[in-house]
Amino acid sequence: MSAAQWRKAMNSGAASAARPVTAAPVVPLTTQEPAERGEHGELPRWMKRVFRDVGARHVVVMLGLLLYPLVANGFFTFQVGAQSLALGLVALSLTFLGGYGGMVSVAQMTVAGVAGYLLAIFGSSSATAISLGWPWWLAAVFAIALATVFATLVGWLSVRTEGIYTIMITLAIGVAFFYLAQQNYSLFNGHQGFNKLFPPTVLDIDFREATPFYYLSLACALAGYFFVKLLVRAPFGVALQGIRDNPRRMNSLGYNVTAHRVAAYAVAGLLAAVGGVLLAWYNNRISPGSMNTGAMINILVIAVLGGMNRPIGAFIGAVVFVLLQNFAVDLVDRERFNLVIGGVFLAIVLFSPNGLVGIWTQLRARLGSRKAINPRRRLQ
């Protein structure tokens, strides 16, 4: 650098140093934008996305479900419709755990059985020496709450394992409770269980009848379905899916992996407990046979048949399972029903790993009626 260039640079620096420094304008707090979209009474972004996804197909399906008892007889309304909704609610708990949490538990029917037993113990049943005779609403609330606590304890024992070990632990818990209920007569009334668990009568509406019980099951199923839809879009649901994909990375980001997984078991237990109360009212009884190994495997079959990547898959799988259960005897012997279920299950797994919902998605994609699904948002 020459002497002339050096003097020029020094003069420009001195001029800039002598120039007064002006402070940045202060923006009043009243004119600043809210930090999040959820302020000032607005809905959070994830909740807005859920309501935006409720399109015409949801309205059509809901209208069909509401009008179903008007076109179906009592058998299809109660035996097919109500039973499918109750079983679908229990399967939804497994879909939430497996599809969004990556945890496969076969003890969800055990949680439903615990809720049914507690409903009989706290409420009214044929075993008057054991049942406490509480009002139905109080017995139902305590049954659901304690069954949720039981599911949380199951999750606390299971979340420290992965894969086949989680399945074995939950299976062991389910089998242990089955034998406990079967051999205990002072609290669970042994292998006989509890009979005369009738649904209540509210405001002159007798829920023992087919149509009112169907609408009760439908209300609980819709509440569980939209609750899961909202939860998986919420920050907790997004974090749970991140833990499913990469727990180590989520742990390094500061998320408590164990706490999120235990909370997921609690949410799934709440859904299964409500389904267990509905099943106890549907069958008018609860016994060890209601939650044996076959019943636990049936919930897993229902969830896989429908598809564990969408909440609606649990109810679709339940409808298919109930239809096969009621009408497969016309094709084969009743003793060979499990053979039919196994064949359908094998075909679905081979041709569509995502279940019946996956088949529907593939057909819509081939027909060009929707855009390609982003793999990162497939479970949302």
TrEMBL record:
Coiled-coil stretches, from where to where?
none
Q: How does it sit in the membrane?
A: Multi-pass membrane protein
What protein am I looking at?
Branched-chain amino acid ABC transporter permease
Transmembrane parts of this sequence: 54-76, 82-102, 109-130, 136-157, 164-181, 213-241, 262-282, 288-305, 312-328, 340-361
Q: Fetch the InterPro entries from UniProt.
A: ABC_transp_permease (IPR001851), LivM-like (IPR043428)
Q: Does the keyword Cell membrane apply?
A: yes
A Pfam family for this UniProt protein? BPD_transp_2
Q: Where in the cell is it found?
A: Cell membrane
GO CC field: plasma membrane
Q: Recorded GO terms, molecular function?
A: branched-chain amino acid transmembrane transporter activity
How far does the signal peptide extend, from start to end residue?
A: none
Q: Which UniProt keywords apply?
A: Cell membrane, Membrane, Transmembrane, Transmembrane helix
Organism expressing this protein natively: Ramlibacter ginsenosidimutans
Predominant subcellular localization, coarse grouping: membrane
